[in-house]
Amino acid sequence: MNNKILITGGSSGIGKGIAEHFYERGWDVLITGRNLSKLEAAAAEMPGIQTMEYHSSDEGQLADIVDFIQDYWEARLDILVNNGGHVTIGGLEGLEAEPLMDMYRAHLIGPSLLTSKCLEFLKNTRGQVLNVTSSHGIKAYPQTTAYAS
Description:
Number of strands: 5
CATH topology: Rossmann fold
Radius of gyration: 16 Å
Strand order of the largest sheet: 3-2-1-4-5
Structural class: alpha/beta
Low-confidence stretches: none
CATH architecture: 3-Layer(aba) Sandwich
CATH superfamily: NAD(P)-binding Rossmann-like Domain
Helix content: 40-55%
Distance between the termini: 41 Å
CATH class: Alpha Beta
Strand content: 15-25%
Number of helices: 5
Shape: globular
């Protein structure tokens, strides 16, 4: 039975690089993302990987991921990579609640809920969680206030 990895934000950048690494080593790979065309392009480059649309604020999509792992991967997950995210550009002046809340949903609430829902599967394999963050948490820049928080 192949090892299994779930990577949020897996259709580009760091997430896609992680997906390629494990795909090349024969792992079963599930990548998620917000952009269906990017997910389809990644799947075309790595035949056999699984893709799912996932917005961190969509509880229905979260349930779909959990159902997939339960039903198709027999409740097994070896690695969860919380990599999905996005940046909202803007400083403190004029900062509004919704973009800030959107950033927190994407970078804190979504990964926390996904990890919580996947713990049962990770326990089955003594699996691991990798949370990918940004250096902006250490050194912020004026126009990345929400992102750096």
